[in-house]
């Protein structure tokens, strides 16, 4: 199953045994009879009422006389506590306990003779009571009205010591919300009493609303009021003291005028029968620590053939409406659509019909979300009973009284990755694993194993590119959440392929209007996201174009001998040293592949430039982060890129059981070596288009494998098209390890003829062969004659220079001799004192003789 539910609380296991003990030993409760006969053999009345911010769970049950028993389960100590017993046959609507467990607020209605609650016919009353429970003492009536009331204590963010005042929200079905301020005093030691029992100060928080949701973890109230039939979402933030602020207003393009009154997360809602849930709309607000704000909305179900729901991505400035096919027309749906908050994702599902995993952090491309429709093992295993998403990843199953933490199942997603056949599913699962995975290194190893087996499976995107970009992004994302605007998280820019079974419409929406002027924490991040959507049209994502341009400039300067200041270049190479040191410090395992064993100046130059450019980019846009932290983030990011490339190669190396002897040329390449060569070619293609650095030694190993595995014409074609990059290390081994058979001579001559001049001059000296002498002579002559101007001929040929009479060659040698004598210092060939006109003449004769077969 894609969702893994870990049980935090279970009524049947965590409460029922304790209740049975209470019944068996009433004296042990210390409640003076309130705990006696708590339950007989019928436990159907036992149910959860509320989950408080600190995780404590309030539940209720009835004894044989109908008395209402309130209990509290402490999630820290995993102990139960009897709170209070109403010795009347009442039905509980809502209840809440303050953080000090000194006050209980409860709303109750009278029950009918059949044991069911009165449906609030005229003359019936809903009592809202405030009870002192430490110790049990006074009971104060807060409301006695004909409409329903819900209650919720506010919990301060700092709970280190008892507060002298508690704050209670009272939510009325008459569409208003009030906050009561309850002062308490301590008497006779630990006895707590209400100080202002006669009159409790109150504030009107909201009114004329049709829908409200409570966020217990963040102490936020979301509600919707109707302004001229226009739905307006508002949010109020409560603080540790009595203060509260209206944070934002956001228009919702949905109709709620005929949907009735709806509350979310104000305890267990039994006002509506479960079998009628599908006829009511579903609306909920989800946020996470990165500053996202999503409103998920599913209207009343009108058709049994398809389901439509919408998600307002306010932090991105657009709304998406999804339509999912349900299959057969007679497949009736007994439940409403369920939305669950999974941090970076929202799960949307209808048991037995479809399961969608929406990426709310990066919703721009539909391929980053997973859509499963129809008969599927994952869908069939989801709980059939209604679930309520509380705060964070907490989920409550009201019917069974179980509290879960919902996590994405890494094991299932990995299995799904292996079995999936659609590119959109592979893309979605890959991102899901990388964003939510635990034990990241082990997870990456399993993904790399899958990549090595499916290197050519994806046609819509480059699998290696996507893995490198996404994994490197998520490796540093927790350190600064704003990097999602500054670093690419995907190599795919557009996605036009349809998702089977899904149709969607994307619309721009009006952004929330922030109503405060100073922002902290979540609100600061949300405001930053909104500012980005409003004012930043061009994306701020890092682009390699600057690095590409500067790298090519430095390479050109090196070839021309006009490289800029030594300090600048030294700083660039210093950055590369830091990257490699950072990589080695993080990777303590020895590598099988012979990488990082040579000075690859081009790759080190690219690494260093990327460090400089990326650091400058983050410093310019990532406000409020220390310079040292940004520098470390950059080093970690580039080190991660290199490490992933090495690990992809290592996995293939181990799979094919290769060893270091692969770097020798004593035999033709095997099928295993060709497989590794093919993988390295794919890695090179992936990194070239993104202009990413490669580990020093990569090109050498790639070239050596190419020489072993490819026919000469294919090898030269790869070299000429830039697939194989000739390095000094690789060509040096080639010249030293291969003997001078006819085949090897042809190979060596072809390779040397394609070398850059600076490397070619060094390599030619290692090969004692007429061809090598010929190449050396050519380079020498080219250098001498590049600025030659014909002069009047006055000298006489010195025949001692050559041993044979060959007038064209003698004339040419005379010209070279004159040039050398006129400026010997300028044209001296460094490291070759014996290179002169005589050497050129002898080399020309030997080569001519060889070509003529004399």
Notes on the protein architecture:
The chain is an alpha+beta fold and 854 residues long. Among the domains are: 6-243, no CATH class; 784-854, no CATH class. 34% of the residues lie in helices and 25% in strands. The chain contains 21 helices and 31 strands. The strands form 6 sheets. It has a 7-stranded antiparallel β-sheet. A 6-stranded mixed β-sheet has the order 18-14-15-16-17-31, with no helix packed on it. Helix 9 (566-586) crosses helix 11 and helix 19 (807-822) packs antiparallel against helix 21 (837-852). The chain is elongated, with a radius of gyration of 38 Å. The chain starts with a strand and ends with a helix. Residues 27-36, 113-123, 271-278 and 825-834 have low confidence and may be disordered.
Task: Offer a concise description of the structure.
The chain is an alpha+beta fold. β20 (293-298) and β21 form a beta hairpin. Residues 27-36, 113-123, 271-278 and 825-834 have low confidence and may be disordered.
* Number of DSSP strand runs: 31
Considering DSSP H and I runs of 4 or more, what fraction of the residues is helical? 25-40%
CA-CA gap between termini: 79 Å
Strand content: 25-35%
Gyration radius (Cα, Å) is 38 Å
Q: Mean pLDDT, rounded to whole units?
A: 82
Described by the principal axes of the CA atoms, the overall outline is: elongated
Q: How are the strands ordered across the major sheet?
A: 2-3-4-5-6-7-8
Tell me about the largest β-sheet.
7 strands, antiparallel
Structural class: alpha+beta
In DSSP terms, counting alpha (H) and pi (I) runs of 4 or more, how many helices? 21
Ranges where pLDDT stays below 50 over 5 or more residues in a row are: 27-36, 113-123, 271-278, 825-834
């Amino acid at each position: 199953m894609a969702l893994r539910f870990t049980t935090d609380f279970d009524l049947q296991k965590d409460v029922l045994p304790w209740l049975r003990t209470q019944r068996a030993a009433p004296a042990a409760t210390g409640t003076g009879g309130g705990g006696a006969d708590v339950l007989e053999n019928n436990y159907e009345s036992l149910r959860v009422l509320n989950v408080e911010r600190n995780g404590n769970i309030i539940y209720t049950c009835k004894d044989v006389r109908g008395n209402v028993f309130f209990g509290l389960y402490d999630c820290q100590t995993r102990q139960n506590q009897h709170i209070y017993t109403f010795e009347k046959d009442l039905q509980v609507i809502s209840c809440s306990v303050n953080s000090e467990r000194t006050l209980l607020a409860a709303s109750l209605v009278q029950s009918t003779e059949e044991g069911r609650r009165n449906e609030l016919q005229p003359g019936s009353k809903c009592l809202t009571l405030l009870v002192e429970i430490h110790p049990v003492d006074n009971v104060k009536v807060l409301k006695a009205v004909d409409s329903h009331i819900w209650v919720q204590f506010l919990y301060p963010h700092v709970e280190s010591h008892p507060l002298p005042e508690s704050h209670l929200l009272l939510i009325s079905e008459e569409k208003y919300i009030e906050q009561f301020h309850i002062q308490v005093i301590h008497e006779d030691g630990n006895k707590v009493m209400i100080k202002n029992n006669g009159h409790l100060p109150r504030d009107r928080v909201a009114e004329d609303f049709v829908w409200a949701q409570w966020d217990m973890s963040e102490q936020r109230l979301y509600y919707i009021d109707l302004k001229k039939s226009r739905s307006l979402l508002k949010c109020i933030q409560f603080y540790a003291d009595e203060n509260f602020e209206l944070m934002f207003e956001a228009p919702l393009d949905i109709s709620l005028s005929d949907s009735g009154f709806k509350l979310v997360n104000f305890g267990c809602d039994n006002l509506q029968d479960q079998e009628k849930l599908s006829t009511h709309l579903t609306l909920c607000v989800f946020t996470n620590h990165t500053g996202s704000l999503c409103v998920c909305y599913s209207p009343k179900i009108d058709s049994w053939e398809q389901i439509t729901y919408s998600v307002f991505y306010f932090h991105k400035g657009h709304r998406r409406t999804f339509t999912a096919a349900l299959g057969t027309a007679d497949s009736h749906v007994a439940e409403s659509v369920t939305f669950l908050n999974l941090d970076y994702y929202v799960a949307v599902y209808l048991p037995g019909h479809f399961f969608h995993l929406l990426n709310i952090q990066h919703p721009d491309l539909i391929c980053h979300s997973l859509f499963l429709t129809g008969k599927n093992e994952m869908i069939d295993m989801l709980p059939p009973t209604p679930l309520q998403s509380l705060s964070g990843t907490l989920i409550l199953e009201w019917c069974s009284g179980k509290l879960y933490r919902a996590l994405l199942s890494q094991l299932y997603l990995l299995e799904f990755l292996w079995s999936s056949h659609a590119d959109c599913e592979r893309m979605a699962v890959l991102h899901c694993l990388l964003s939510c995975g635990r034990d990241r290194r082990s997870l990456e190893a399993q993904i790399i194993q899958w990549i090595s087996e499916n290197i050519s499976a994806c046609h819509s995107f480059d699998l290696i590119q996507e893995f490198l970009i996404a994994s490197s992004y998520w490796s540093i994302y927790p350190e600064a959440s704003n990097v999602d605007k500054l670093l690419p998280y995907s190599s795919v820019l557009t996605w036009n392929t349809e998702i089977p079974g899904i149709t969607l419409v994307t619309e721009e929406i009006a952004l929330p209007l922030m109503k405060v002027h100073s922002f902290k924490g979540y609100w600061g991040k949300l405001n930053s996201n909104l500012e980005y959507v409003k004012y930043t049209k061009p994306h701020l994502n890092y682009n390699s174009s600057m690095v590409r341009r500067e790298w090519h400039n430095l390479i050109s300067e090196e070839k021309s001998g006009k490289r800029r200041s030594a300090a600048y270049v030294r700083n660039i190479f210093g950055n590369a040293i830091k990257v490699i040191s950072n990589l080695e410090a993080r990777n303590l395992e020895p590598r099988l592949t012979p990488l990082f064993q040579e000075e690859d100046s081009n790759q080190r130059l690219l690494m260093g430039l990327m460090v400089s450019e990326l650091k400058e980019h983050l410093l310019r846009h990532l406000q409020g982060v220390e310079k040292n932290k940004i520098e470390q983030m950059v080093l970690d990011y580039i080190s991660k890129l290199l490490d992933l490339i090495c690990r992809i190669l290592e996995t293939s190396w181990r799979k094919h059981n290769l060893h270091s002897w692969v770097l020798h040329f004593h035999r033709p390449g095997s099928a295993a070596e060709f497989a590794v060569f093919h993988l390295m070619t794919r890695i090179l293609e992936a990194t070239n288009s993104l202009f990413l650095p490669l580990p020093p030694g990569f090109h050498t190993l790639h070239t050596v494998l190419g020489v072993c595995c490819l026919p000469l014409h294919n090898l030269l074609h790869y070299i000429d098209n830039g697939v194989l990059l000739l390095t000094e290390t690789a060509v040096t081994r080639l010249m030293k390890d291969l003997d001078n058979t006819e085949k090897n001579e042809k190979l060596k001559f072809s390779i040397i003829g394609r070398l850059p001049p600076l490397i070619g001059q060094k390599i030619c000296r290692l090969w004692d062969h007429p061809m090598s002498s010929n190449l050396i002579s050519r380079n020498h002559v080219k250098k001498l004659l590049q600025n030659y101007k014909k002069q009047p001929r006055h000298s006489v040929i010195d025949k001692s220079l050559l041993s044979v009479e060959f007038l064209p060659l003698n004339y040419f040698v005379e010209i070279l001799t004159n040039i050398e004598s006129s400026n010997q210092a300028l044209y001296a060939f460094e490291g070759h004192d014996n290179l002169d006109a005589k050497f050129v003449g002898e080399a020309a004769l030997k080569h001519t003789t060889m070509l003529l077969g004399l």
